[in-house]
Structure formats: C-alpha cells, structure tokens
Design goal:
Elements lengths: L15 H17 L3 E2 L5 E3 H8 L4 H6 L1 E4 L5 E4 L4 H10 L9 E10 L11 E10 L4 H18 L4 E7 L3 H16 L7 H9 L11 H5 L10 H16 L5 E2 L13 E7 L7 E7 L3 H4 L7 E7 H10 L12 E5 L3 H16 L4 E3 L6 H10 L4 E5 L1 H6 L1 E6 L5 E5 L3 H12 L1
Parallel strand pairs: 1-5, 7-8, 12-13, 12-14
Antiparallel strand pairs: 2-4, 3-4, 5-6, 6-11, 7-9, 9-10, 10-11, 14-15, 15-16
Helix pairs in contact: 1-5, 5-9
Bound molecules: histidyl-adenosine monophosphate.
The site of histidyl-adenosine monophosphate (HAM) has 28 residues, from strand 6, strand 10, strand 11 and helix 11.
C-alpha cells in the first residue's frame, strides 16, 4: 500500500469545517481591510529563497525541498510566501499601480523539518503583505489586522510579542555586542550555536537549548538609533491606543534574515513547543535586494494547522458544513427514478443541499444510509405516491412522516427545514 510522505496530511471529512472556517474568515476580513488576493506558483528558482530568506538561516541550510528539473534548473518548493510575492511585485511591474498595495495569500508551504504536532513538512499559511509604507501606522494596522483575525476565528488564549530589530546600522552595533557577550560562553554552547556564532549571531538568542545565556544577553532595544527608536515608540503608542494587548520581547529575532525594524510573533498559550501561530514584520530592504526599487514593506503569516490546533484546544465551535440536508429515496421503476432525479435537481437549484440515492438499495438500506450521513429529511417517492401526485417527507429526527402534493414539495421542505433550525 502506498503511504503519504512523512510530515504531510490528507484533509477530508469532518476536519474540513476548520479549514472552511479559517479560509472564509481570512478572505472576508482581508477584503474588509483592503487586501487583494495573490496566487504565486508553489515552486520558484532556488536563488530567490537563498537571497531573501538568507544563506545562513535554518530554512536555507537544512529545510528546503530543492531539486533539479529536467532543464537542469535548481528549483525549490516555496518554504514561505513573502519572497514569491515580492518577486511577483517586481517582475510584473506592480509598483506602477501606485502605493500602498496590500496582498493576501492562502496556500501550502514546504519545509523539511522534523515532524511533530504543529510542525509539518507540507503546511499551509495565510499571509498578508503591505508594500509602500515606511510609517509605523502600517505596522500598527498589520498587527491590528492579525489580532482581529484571531479574534474573529474565536481565539482568545494567545499573546502578541513585538520587538524592533532596528535598521542596518543598529544591527551591526548590536551584533558586535552579542558576539562579545557570547564569546565568554563559547566553549559551553551547543553545536548549533557554535555555528550560529560564526554565521548568524542573532539566531543565538533563539536557541531552545542555551536559553540561560539568552536571558542575560544584551537587548537590541538598547542599541536602537534615534530613528528606529522613534518608529518603535510610535508603533507601541498606536497599538496601545487601538486597545491591542502586546508584550515587548527584546529577544525576538525571527528565523528569516530579511527583517528590519518591527518584528512580531503571536504565541498560543496551550500549544506547547510549537506555540507560534503567526509571525511577521517589516522587510524594508527586500524588494531592492530582489531587483526592484527601494520600497518599504511588511507582512505576516499564520500557520493554518496551528490555528486549527488552537481552535481545538480552546474548544471553539465552528460552523458545520451543511451537506445532505435532504436525501431523496425512491422505489419502483423508471418513473420513480425519473421523478427522484428531477426532484433532487429542483431542491438543489433552490440551494438546499440534497443527496440522491445512487446505489439502488432497498428502502430500509436507503433510510439507514440517509441517517448515517446526517440527513434531516428524506423525500420518499414510491409508485403509489406517484399515482396520487404526492411525495412523502420523513423527518429523520422525529421519525414523523407527512405527505405533500408535488407542487408544494419545495416550499413544504423549506418550511420544515426552518422549523428544525
Ligand atoms: P514564519 O514565522 O517562518 O514566517 O512562519 C509563519 C507561521 O507559519 C508560523 O508562525 C507557524 O504558525 C507556521 N509554520 C512555520 N513552519 C511550520 C511548519 N513546519 N509546520 C506548521 N506550521 C508552520 C514566515 O513564513 C514569513 N514569510 C512571514 C512573513 C510574511 N513575514 C513578512 N511577511
């Protein structure tokens, strides 16, 4: 028997209601906040991610699904959505449409990570990107949007962490301070941190093993220049004034290299190790880095699988997907069958989710099936009913049966459904 690839999932059945819930709310709210949808390919030139996410990040070093295609090109399944959206913005000359521009996306991402609850090799993100504004009002609006989305989904048990990574000059000074501080502990650092010390010092702060060193490390906020400080202070003021709860987390550095100034992450309190349900920030240098003009930008992405885990631990009741509210049953010859097809189509054209018997079973087997799939009403068409121009409707909850004249069937069923709600 074939098996799915480790770290991937088949999505079907009852769990789809969570996907519908999140995707529908995300689309709705994106439109309300003025984001247009963008869909980019799921694979890109490998160079795009090396350049944007960063050569020395875990993603590029260990996690990318990279392969050579038949034309000898190095291709990578997208590990994240920002770089492809930026590539599309530059390649399609979208800047000509004026600024700011706001885009959202929903889709699969791929990272070769060690699978566990909340961490997969194919996972899905909802992401939002804003191009054009250097102002902290854009950072504030983005975080307000992320918070609003989580609230609309029904989540409450989360915390928004924010930090500023300053501009490039600030980071140069800060990286020196970090290097100096960690130099004293170099011998006792874990193997990964020894590499980080050489290649990507900010990531030292993110180590899950050497946590005690990060606690006493210098804080980036003490190294921010006037401009970055002002930007960060204004963001905090705007968030407070908008009533957003947040905590400052001076050790928040994020795992992708393109960030500058604002970074943020949302953590769910009850997800354990994989608690980050969303993350993002400003990436003012990335568009230029990828070959475009100097356009400031920012965005965030939320992991849909982790949002679903959060909805489940918080016991949020999401809408059921209504299917097969009515089930059409028939017995007898061609005439009953024709009538069943016609009636099912009529009910469907009225927007009533309707199932039709396709297996040609006995009436008791048909009724049993209707009850298994959760039909609320069964329409029964038999020869006797056909002769009298009526149909029988069975209420599957009470077992009660009523007879309707054919011309009244649709309205009768509508009334019964309303009464049952
Ligand atoms: P990220 O923090 O790498 O940021 O990913 C965003 C979210 O995707 C995480 O908070 C998490 O919920 C989810 N996620 C990441 N990896 C996995 C995984 N292996 N399994 C399940 N869920 C996962 C980005 O990707 C940036 N592109 C966000 C951004 C947009 N920054 C600016 N614009």
């Amino acid at each position: 028997m074939y098996q799915k690839i480790k770290g991937t999932d088949d999505l079907y059945g009852d769990q789809m209601k969570y996907w519908y819930w999140i995707e529908e709310k995300a689309r709705e709210l994106s439109t309300i906040y003025g984001y247009g949808e963008i869909r980019t390919p799921i694979f890109e030139e490998t160079k795009l991610f090396v350049r944007s996410v960063g050569q020395d990040t875990d993603i590029v070093q260990k996690e990318m699904y990279t392969f050579e295609d038949k034309g000898g090109r190095s291709i990578t399944l997208r590990p994240e959505g920002t770089a492809p959206v930026v590539r599309a913005f530059v390649e399609n000359g979208m800047l000509a449409q004026g600024l700011p521009q706001k885009y959202f996306y929903i889709g699969p991402m791929f990272r070769y990570e060690r699978p566990q609850s909340g961490r997969q090799r194919q996972f899905h993100q909802f992401g939002a990107e804003i191009f054009g504004s250097p102002s902290p009002i854009a950072d504030a609006e983005l975080i307000i949007f992320a918070d609003k989305l989580l609230k609309e989904l029904g989540l409450v048990d989360y915390e928004i962490h924010i930090n500023s990574l300053g501009n490039e000059d600030d980071r140069i000074k800060y990286k020196e301070a970090i290097k100096e501080y960690y130099a004293q502990h170099l011998e006792s650092l874990c193997d990964d941190c020894k590499i980080r010390y050489e290649k990507n010092v900010l990531r030292l702060l993110d180590c899950k093993i050497d946590v005690k060193y990060a606690e006493n490390a210098p804080k980036i906020t003490d190294y921010l220049g006037e401009e970055s400080k002002k930007h960060y202070e204004e963001l905090k003021r705007l968030l407070t004034s908008a009533g957003i709860d947040y905590v400052e987390d001076p050790r928040l550095v994020r795992g992708l290299d393109y960030y500058s100034r604002t970074v943020f992450e949302v953590h769910h309190h009850r997800l354990g190790a994989m608690s980050a349900i969303a993350g993002g920030g400003r990436y003012d240098g990335l568009i230029k880095e990828i070959g475009g003009k100097e356009v400031p930008a920012l965005g965030f992405a939320a992991g849909i699988e982790r949002l679903i885990l959060s909805l489940k631990v918080e016991n949020v009741q999401v809408d059921e997907i209504s299917k097969n509210v009515v089930y059409v049953i028939y017995l007898g010859g061609k005439e009953a069958r024709d009538e069943a097809v016609k009636l099912a189509e009529l009910l469907r054209s009225e927007g009533i989710p309707t199932g039709l018997e396709l297996m040609e079973r006995s009436i008791s087997a048909q009724l049993k099936h209707a009850s298994r799939i959760g039909a609320k009403l069964c329409v029964i068409i038999g020869e006797d009913e056909l002769e009298r121009d009526v149909v029988v409707i069975k209420n599957m909850e009470t077992g009660e049966q009523v007879e309707f004249e054919k011309s009244f069937v649709v309205n009768g069923i509508k009334d019964m459904i309303t009464e049952m709600q």
